[in-house]
Write a sequence for this structure.
């Protein structure tokens, strides 16, 4: 893992390097870079693939105690990350959390193409039963810690009302243990996640949706066809908002499309990049 110092603290990231076009894959809430491994490995031969681990639960280095980690604050960190690495003409790919949406119309000058896979959007925030349970637990002293204990029990974490509801295929438990180890072992990481969950305004993605109407570059909305937490109807509405948006459904996939069907997702991303070449 490489590191970059941002205004809120140190952010880790992976970078395959190379001279190809830049693809930035952004993990969602509680996931680290490995949630994108199957996609990154397939794209790496032709693209420079970068995966930042933003401070929303999957990170291993706590942020500064006074950091703004609301949804808008984390989006600002993503913009700062792109700037600090001096990345240009980025294909920005988001999953689960809606962070990339919040750059549109605010700090999107480095984004050439936008890809939104199943993620929170519009009025679906907090999303589904899982998101609402997390929001409620994080508002009670000790509630977040207690909720996270269920992720130590394979049977409980694989329930459809828990992480198991975010994927069609069973998620390897060793990955779950890896993803949630920082939250289980660090009070500061739990503090950071609590900020993200509780400090955002309820209408943050509705306001972002209005700005999507101004995004004048190519956009792909690739949604899990079997997603229940982030319903496909939400994805279709997002694509309709984007002036140059195109909607596709990823078969056999729920929220974690990159785990359920990475081959089809990679094919869609490759096709999308090929059909929207950068200006010469």
């Amino acid at each position: 893992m490489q590191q970059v110092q941002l205004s809120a603290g140190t952010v880790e990231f992976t970078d395959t390097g190379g001279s190809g076009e830049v693809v930035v894959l952004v993990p969602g809430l509680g996931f680290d870079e490995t949630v994108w491994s199957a996609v990154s490995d397939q794209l790496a031969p032709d693209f420079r693939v970068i995966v930042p681990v933003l401070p929303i639960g999957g990170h291993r280095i706590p942020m500064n105690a006074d950091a703004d980690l609301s949804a808008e604050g984390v989006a600002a960190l993503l913009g700062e990350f792109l700037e600090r690495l001096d990345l240009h003409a980025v294909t920005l790919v988001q999953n689960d959390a809606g962070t990339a949406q919040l750059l549109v119309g605010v700090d999107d000058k480095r984004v050439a193409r936008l890809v939104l896979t199943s993620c929170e959007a519009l009025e679906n925030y907090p999303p589904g039963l899982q998101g609402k349970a997390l929001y409620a637990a994080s508002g009670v002293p000790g509630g977040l810690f207690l909720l996270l204990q269920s992720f130590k029990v394979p049977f409980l974490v694989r329930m459809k009302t828990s992480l198991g509801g975010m994927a069609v295929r069973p998620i390897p438990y060793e990955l779950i243990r890896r993803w949630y180890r920082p939250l289980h072992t660090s009070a500061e990481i739990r503090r950071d996640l609590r900020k993200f969950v509780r400090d955002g305004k309820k209408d943050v993605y509705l306001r972002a949706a209005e700005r999507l109407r101004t995004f004048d570059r190519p956009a792909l909305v690739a949604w899990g066809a079997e997603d229940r937490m982030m319903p496909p109807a939400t994805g279709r509405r997002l694509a309709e908002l984007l002036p140059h948006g195109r909607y596709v459904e990823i078969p056999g996939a729920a929220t974690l499309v990159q785990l359920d069907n990475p081959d089809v997702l990679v094919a869609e991303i490759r096709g999308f990049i090929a059909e929207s070449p950068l200006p010469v």
Summary: The radius of gyration is 17 Å. The first strand starts at residue 2 and ends at 6.
